[in-house]
TrEMBL record:
The keyword Transcription belongs to this UniProt entry's keyword annotation: yes
Signal peptide start and end residues: none
Alphabetized UniProt keyword annotations: Sigma factor, Transcription, Transcription regulation
Family of the protein in this entry: Belongs to the sigma-70 factor family. ECF subfamily.
Domain RNA polymerase sigma factor 70 region 4 type: residue ranges: 125-174
Pfam family, one: Sigma70_r2
Name of the protein in question: Sigma-70 region 2
GO biological process annotation, one example: DNA-templated transcription initiation
Classification of source organism: Bacteria, Pseudomonadati, Bacteroidota, Bacteroidia, Bacteroidales
InterPro entries registered for this protein in UniProt: RNA_pol_sigma-70-like (IPR039425), RNA_pol_sigma-70_dom (IPR014284), RNA_pol_sigma70_r2 (IPR007627), RNA_pol_sigma70_r4_t2 (IPR013249), RNA_pol_sigma_r2 (IPR013325), RNA_pol_sigma_r3/r4-like (IPR013324), WH-like_DNA-bd_sf (IPR036388)
Gene3D superfamilies attached to this UniProt entry: 1.10.1740.10, Winged helix-like DNA-binding domain superfamily/Winged helix DNA-binding domain
Length: 189
């Protein structure tokens, strides 16, 4: 989803670079919902998510001078990257209850086939992802949405490469079970 295409996005960037107060409001109005949805992939508590969104917006608006416009979509990609980084920083600060569990070796689970998702609303799937344990959710999002390799995820989170692969496998299995349950309860009505 892109809010500005071509010249309009570039004009917004130029207004932001010029310190135009209305441009900052336009940026917030246009990107807050999108950036919130990116952060919600990582952070399951709405109050924490609001705090991270605020930190993210402050970081974006104070560092917009370093942003180099590289064509349509580059502003959104930049904002997304900042939100992902802010979300990961937040999770690292909460390491005791979150990411530390990523490096624990658990017994292997058998692979579960991908259940059909065509009839499940996107917001339901989004909520299923938010309900995953923090470690599973973090690795799943970095792998699926940010297109990171297991090596990159391991470096970002300070875990072993095999732990990343294991966490992704478990996340997929847990999601498959949630989807199967949803399909069962919503097709028997």
């Amino acid at each position: 989803m892109r809010f500005f295409i071509g010249d309009k996005e570039e004009k917004l960037v130029n207004r932001l670079h010029g310190g135009d107060k209305t441009a900052m409001q336009d940026f917030y109005t246009l990107y807050a919902d999108y950036i919130t949805s990116v952060g919600a992939r990582y952070i399951d508590n709405d109050d924490d998510l609001k705090d991270v969104l605020q930190d993210c917006m402050v970081k974006m608006l104070t560092s917009i001078g370093q942003f180099d416009y590289r064509g349509p979509g580059s502003l959104q990609a930049w904002a997304t990257r900042i939100m992902v980084n802010q979300s990961l920083s937040f999770l690292k600060r909460k390491r005791a209850e979150a990411i530390v569990s990523l490096d624990v070796e658990l017994p292997d689970e058998p692979e579960v086939d991908d259940p059909p998702i065509d009839d499940i609303p996107p917001d339901v799937i989004h909520q299923m992802v938010r309900e995953l344990p923090t470690g599973y959710r973090t690795v799943f999002n970095l792998y699926v949405f940010e297109d990171k390799s297991h090596q990159e995820i391991a470096q970002l989170l300070g875990i072993k490469r095999d732990s990343s692969a294991s966490q992704l496998h478990r996340a997929k299995n847990m999601l498959a079970k949630k989807i199967e349950q949803y399909n069962k309860t919503n097709t028997t009505r």
